[in-house]
Predict the 3D structure of the following.
Amino acid sequence: MAGVSRLGKTFTAKQGQYLAYIHLYTRLHRRSPAETDMQKYFRVSPLRFTRWC
Amino acid sequence: MVLTLERAGFIRRQPETARSIELLVIPTSCRTYSDPGFNRSKSLCRPTSRFPKFLLRDFTQTPDPGLRCGSWAILVQRLRSIRGYRPTILIHLSNSPTPISVVARFDQAEEAFMYFAIEFSTATEDLEWITIMH
């Protein structure tokens, strides 16, 4: 299941989850998430985190 | 994943700088209730008793997916505000034959919204209705 951004770019469901996380984290905390924040939330290892997809 | 998103042009990062991820696109399914068209004061749910056996919330008449998502989040927050009430919520999506079960464990609407938007980021437009059980 893929999503479409407002600019027309398509992304996968997993990519959409990461984009949603970055978007909402930034809105809630008024700063960008650290990569470790995303690793913890999505429960992925650093290696998997950087090489996924 | 970060490298993939960066190569695809969805985000931008500053090398060797922490917390430098910048979103270059906004997924259409990630709209929040601060967006135009979202009426925060609109009545979302009025349980008739303190502990309703189950409660249905129909979202089929709410065309905006951001509003649907935000409505769900605020509804969950309101349920959490009832002391001792920790219902199970069934989310019915139009593209899923079986409802998705989640436990209301959010103290703030923002948390619930974030959870929903992330877990169902590509499916918010498919949110039809929810059932709340205890």
